[in-house]
Write a structure and sequence with these properties.
- By secondary structure, the chain is α/β, with parallel strands linked by helices.
- It folds into 2 domains: 103 residues, Rossmann fold, CATH 3.40.50.720; 153 residues, 2-Layer Sandwich (Dihydrodipicolinate Reductase, domain 2), CATH 3.30.360.
- Helices cover 25% and strands 28% of the residues.
- The protein is built from 7 helices and 15 strands.
- An 8-stranded mixed beta sheet has the order 8-9-10-7-11-12-13-14.
- The longest helix has 17 residues.
Length: 302
């Protein structure tokens, strides 16, 4: 399988490392303004020679470039697998995909404990969901000045709502689309950024489940937690400690953990799912539904 990787920043390099380790990958060429030694590099997509020779396209560029690059691929190749990093777009766009299969990089779907939780919930009646994620932006990328990263810049698709839209995706994956929303999206800290550093929403899904999501760039104590109440059990999933707790009405507690979970492990599972079963990967239509939720929040807070 021949891969064209579009974008070679930190996330592009991660995808490169993961894909390079897979036996079915024959070669990886790059679209980047950087000059990478011993690699075939193109400055732009339009410069790529014989673009149809690639089987798998990976869009790992800034969010504000996703729409243009996806549209170009849809118009210039057919019957290909295309992966696009999350979120799908910077804001809601009209783009119809007919010629290719497009998947979006909501990698937390492949966390083994979230997969286990999804199985537990199949026969449960969910009534309430709380998802919370926060990390201080200056500590995200220690080798980069946070003021210069795309997260800090609204025009490049930065901001916590887009950056941490994982929470919206996995809540909708588990509980249905959020169709009633009240939200708050602001910059409230002293960070030197022009993007939002806090988004909070409360809503109800089309399965009549109440959801509460809070995401931020400002918490000095990093956390990513999911709390779900069903009629029979309480579930708590801590993505950082990799620990899932299930507690029933009688107080009986079960604990599941996944030690030494490497981040690249779930990235590898995600790409392999695209190549093989396409079971848990976020589809283009599911990503559009996430964009619908994002768009509603953006419109409420203009």
């Amino acid at each position: 399988m021949k891969v064209l990787l579009i974008g070679f920043g930190s996330i592009g390099k991660r995808h490169y490392g993961v894909l390079s380790s897979l036996s079915k990958i024959e070669s990886i060429d790059l679209v980047t303004k950087q000059n990478i030694e011993d690699k075939k590099c193109y400055k732009t997509l339009e410069e790529v020679i014989d673009i149809s020779k690639y089987n798998y396209f990976v869009i790992a560029s800034e969010t504000n470039k996703h729409y243009t690059q996806l549209k170009y691929l849809e118009n210039n190749v057919k019957n290909k697998l295309i992966f696009c990093e999350k979120p799908l777009f910077q804001s809601k766009q009209n783009l119809e995909i007919k010629n290719n299969k497009v998947f979006i990089g909501y990698v937390l779907r492949f966390h083994p404990l979230l997969e286990k939780l999804k199985i537990f919930l199949i026969e449960e009646d969910i009534i309430l969901v709380n998802a919370k994620c926060g990390q201080y932006l200056p500590t995200w990328r220690l080798d980069t000045d946070y003021k210069n990263c795309y997260s800090a810049k609204k025009k490049e698709g930065g901001g916590v709502l887009l950056d941490l839209s994982h929470e919206i995706d996995y809540v909708q994956w588990l509980c249905g689309n959020i169709d009633e929303i009240k939200s708050y999206q602001r910059k409230i800290s002293d960070l030197e950024i022009d993007s939002d550093d806090l988004t909070m929403l409360i809503g109800k899904t089309n399965k009549n489940i109440i959801v509460n999501i809070s995401i931020d760039y400002i918490s000095k104590s990093s956390h990513r937690r999911l709390h779900i109440e069903t009629l029979e059990n309480t579930y708590e999933l801590d993505f950082i400690s990799n620990r899932l707790t299930k507690k029933d009405k009688k107080g009986l507690e079960e604990i599941y953990s996944f030690s030494n979970l490497e981040r690249n492990y779930i990235f590898e599972k995600m790409h392999l799912d695209i190549f093989e079963k396409q079971k848990n990967i976020c589809t283009f239509n599911e990503a559009l539904e996430v964009m619908d939720t994002i768009s509603t929040i953006q419109e409420q807070n203009r």
